Amino acid sequence: MTDFIEGLPKAELHLHIEGTIEPETLFRLAARNAVDLRYDSVESLRAAYDFGNLQDFLDLYYQGMAVLQTEEDFYDVTWAYLEKAHAQNVLHAEIFFDPQGHTSRGVAFETAFEGVWRALEDGRERLGVSSRLIPCFLRDRDADEAKAALEQALHYRDRLIAVGLDSAERGNPPVKFKEVFDRARDAGLLTVAHAGEEGPADYVRQALDVLRVARVDHGNHAADDPALMERLARERVPLTMCPLSNLRLQVVADLRNHPLRRMLDNGLLVTVNSDDPAYFGGYINENYRAVQKALGLSNDELARIARNSFHAAFLPEEEKRALT
Ligand code: ADE
Ligand code: ZN
């Protein structure tokens, strides 16, 4: 079974580049940039990765990204992810980054963007890993700040495929970002949003109806609403699910109850992804393995999920065909 998962060609569609900084790398970059960490060893940092909810994680995630200071740092972290993805037979990756997480602490948008981009180019040339880049707005900050971030991002319009929405969900409904998303779509970008991770099914509806998303990131709580489930299946809206993230952030108490099983059985277009692998204990194959085991997925079902990931990718059909 393990070999079967490793051998499956996969696309990864829900991956925060700032969530791929392994503790060892975090310490190395902190030393390189003379950044003070609140932890005195890799072990004590790892021990802190014991999250009660999304906010507990986000507190450490924003602290962790402070080690990213130079273009080289962004390059190194992105390159390390691409090597890992390549080793796990990821043929295509759509990568989130959080510009406001960097500009708010004095690192220029350009520094983050160019470092990540250069690694993606090298990944295409040297590893054959196809990729796209998706800046996300931080939903727990105000909409005007997101608007400013979008204007910065639009300087790089040709090198972006979509915009996204992430960070603390509860109390920050999609509708808060209607204008920003309207502007992004007017500029020809696709849209995605985290919805229904900790927030209710209604946030998934808002993401569809107000932000006009082409995919829903997570979407777990759509399972609470039968009419919404039926709509997601009928409209073939892809969901980028992240099982180990859900387990570690207590979105599900036990992977045996993960909604992916019911969604798959009801014909929803679900995919499996790693979210923030350095924090949640596994990259894409570990996520596939965990749901396979917990939900008893057959090889046919695993292959269907992997096929879904290419179907849901923001790539022209001919590029998809060339990959698979
Ligand atoms: N930022 C990084 N990972 C996230 C997640 N799982 N949910 C919301 N925001 C995030
Ligand atoms: Zn995420």
Automatic annotation (TrEMBL):
Residues covered by the Adenosine deaminase domain: 9-324
Catalytic activity field: adenine + H2O + H(+) = hypoxanthine + NH4(+)
Biological process terms in GO annotation: adenine catabolic process; hypoxanthine salvage; nucleotide metabolic process
Binding positions for substrate per the UniProt entry: D276
Enzyme class of the recorded protein, top EC level: hydrolase
Highest rank taxon of the organism: Bacteria
Keywords on record: Hydrolase, Metal-binding, Nucleotide metabolism, Zinc
Chain positions of site Important for catalytic activity: H218
UniProt KW Metal-binding keyword: yes
InterPro entries: A_deaminase_dom, ADE, Ado/ade_deaminase, Metal_Hydrolase
SUPFAM superfamilies: Metallo-dependent hydrolases
E.C. no: 3.5.4.2
A molecular function GO annotation: zinc ion binding
Free-text remark on how the cofactor is bound: Binds 1 zinc ion per subunit.
Residues the entry annotates as binding Zn(2+): H14, H16, H194, D275
Active site: E197 (proton donor)
Cofactor(s), names only, from the UniProt record: Zn(2+)
A cellular component term, taken from the record's GO annotations: cytosol
HAMAP family found in the cross-reference section: Adenine_deaminase
Function: Catalyzes the hydrolytic deamination of adenine to hypoxanthine. Plays an important role in the purine salvage pathway and in nitrogen catabolism.
Family recorded in the similarity comment: Belongs to the metallo-dependent hydrolases superfamily. Adenosine and AMP deaminases family. Adenine deaminase type 2 subfamily.
Identification of the protein by name: Adenine deaminase
